[in-house]
Design brief:
- It is a single chain.
- This protein has two domains: about 5-20 and about 230-429, UDP-n-acetylglucosamine1-carboxyvinyl-transferase, Chain (Alpha-beta prism), CATH 3.65.10; about 20-230, Enolpyruvate transferase domain (UDP-n-acetylglucosamine1-carboxyvinyl-transferase, Chain, Alpha-beta prism).
- It is built from 13 helices and 25 strands.
- The protein has helices at about 20-35, 50-60, 95-105, 125-135, 140-145, 170-180, 195-205, 235-245, 265-270, 315-325, 345-355, 385-395, 420-425; strands at about 5, 10-15, 35-40, 65, 70-75, 90, 110-115, 135-140, 145-150, 160, 185-190, 210, 215-220, 225, 225-230, 250-260, 275-285, 290-295, 305, 330-335, 360-365, 365-370, 380, 405, 425-429.
- It starts with a strand and ends with a strand.
- About 55% of the residues are buried.
- Bound molecules: shikimate-3-phosphate.
- The site of shikimate-3-phosphate has 12 residues, from helix 6.
Length: about 425
């Protein structure tokens, strides 16, 4: 298991771009594979999670070329996928396993999905249950709630489903199954989660209607191949936003970042803490809003975070909590129970690691209270096998009293293989 030590920095400066959006990259492969014609994708994120999705479709007979610049997916049409000869390994990727469960529920063949030790602990009932209502036969460990999942697809009927918690993965799984169902499939969520599937369905020519916190998809409509340009991932940019905000004397330009309103909760929260973040040259690419982000170091203050902003910032809480640890006063996080079922229990992982750095953190079931400190202590911390915990703690190290050693950092490759060299590039020593 690899460890890495990050030393304090004098400032964070320069101009960077971050790798492509993970959620959009997954969806581009999935939609391209079941469309008619060749879909091309530039800006694709070649992280381990997205490679899991790519390998899954190759295992179902889809040719996918990669010349290092452009990915070309030779779409097979709605009914052209082939039964995989072996179990499909989704690695660490929740998006791969949950969206694929929906897609495979629509196929008239048998398939099995599994993943690594972390993924096999994550809740799958949330997709298995609605897909079962649509007529899919899905078996899994612990009464269908844990992977491996065995799927005998086909014969689906449309349903109307209310999600108990906002989740883009569950919504997207039902939407993908809806492409194969008889009639219409509607999903509504308590508050809006990321809407990349809705945007991409529209781009590929699916028949869908978006309404207040919900979407209706019509089954049996063939999709057409597209040319997709994937913007930089705001979830990856978030580490650099916080790095520049908390390190005095910083000024950083992050080019070409996706700023879809269902993902910009992190910008809203950091701004409410007093962070200086400007959106420059706002534009739209492949149906997604994009901008350059200018961030300057700022004196941050504690805030209360709860409600509908939570799903719009769900992956950024580890690094938002680092910002809170460096802010003046108390930050409270509530309505964030979902953090307990991410790559690891992120509430427990953030609390344990920030405490090691001298921060007072009080956990509750759906969040935590963090008391900001003048200066973080250095020391040794644990990623818990979670890429976003590892990267957030690396950002904390820039302003700690001494170096911070982060243990178990290989997980960073799941979403951001170039993170450490990029951090060193902008850190002024
Ligand atoms: C994702 C949805 C979110 C997010 C994950 C990516 C997606 O998960 O945390 O990293 O691409 O749909 P949930 O749907 O479980 O909230």
């Amino acid at each position: 298991m690899n460890s890495i030590t990050i030393n304090p920095a004098l400032a964070v400066k320069g101009e960077i771009s971050v790798p492509g959006d993970k959620s959009i990259s997954h969806r581009s492969i999935m939609m391209g594979a079941i469309a008619k014609g060749v879909t091309t994708v530039t800006g694709f994120l070649r992280g381990e999670d997205n490679m899991s999705t790519m390998n899954a479709f190759r295992a179902m007979g889809v040719t996918i070329d990669d010349d290092g610049e452009t990915i070309a997916i030779h779409g097979q049409g709605l009914h052209g996928l082939k039964e995989p000869a072996d179990v499909i390994d989704c690695g660490n990727s929740g998006t791969t396993i949950r969206l694929m469960t929906g897609l495979l529920a629509g196929q008239s063949f048998f398939s099995v999905l599994t993943g690594d030790q972390y993924l096999r602990k994550r809740p799958m009932k949330r997709v298995v249950e609605p897909l079962g209502r649509m007529g899919a036969r899905i078996l899994g460990r612990n009464q269908g709630s844990l992977a491996p999942l065995a799927i005998q697809g086909g014969g689906l009927r449309g349903i109307t489903y209310e999600l108990p918690v906002a989740s883009a993965q569950v919504k997207s799984a039902i939407m993908l199954a809806g492409l194969y169902a008889d009639g219409e499939t509607s999903v509504r969520e308590p508050s809006l989660s990321r809407d990349h599937s809705e945007r991409m369905f529209r781009l590929f020519g699916a028949s869908l209607e978006v309404f207040n916190n919900g979407v209706t998809v019509k089954g049996g409509v063939e999709l057409q191949a597209q040319e997709i340009s994937v913007p930089g991932d705001i979830s990856s940019a978030a580490f650099f936003l916080v790095a520049a905000l908390i390190t005095p004397g910083s000024e950083l330009l992050i080019r070409n970042v996706g700023v879809n309103p269902t993902r910009t909760g992190v910008i809203e929260i950091l701004r409410s803490m007093g962070g200086s973040i400007e959106l420059l040259d706002e534009r739209e690419i492949s149906g997604e809003p994009v901008a350059d982000l200018m961030v300057r170091s700022s004196r941050l203050k504690g805030v209360d975070i709860a409600g509908s902003v939570v799903p719009r910032a769900i992956d950024e809480f580890p690094v938002i909590c680092v910002a809170a640890a460096c802010a003046e006063g108390r930050t409270t996080v509530r309505d964030a129970h979902e953090l307990r079922v991410k790559e690891t229990d992120r509430i427990a992982a953030i609390a344990a690691n920030l405490r090691r750095l001298g921060v007072q953190v009080d956990e509750c079931e759906d969040g935590m209270d963090i008391m900001g400190v003048e200066r973080l202590a250095g020391g040794e911390v644990e990623s818990c096998g979670d890429h976003r915990i590892a990267m957030s703690l690396s950002v904390a190290a820039l302003v700690a009293k001494g170096g911070i050693t982060i243990n178990d950092t290989d997980c960073v490759a799941t979403s951001f293989p170039t993170f450490f060299p990029l951090l060193e590039k902008v850190a002024v020593r």
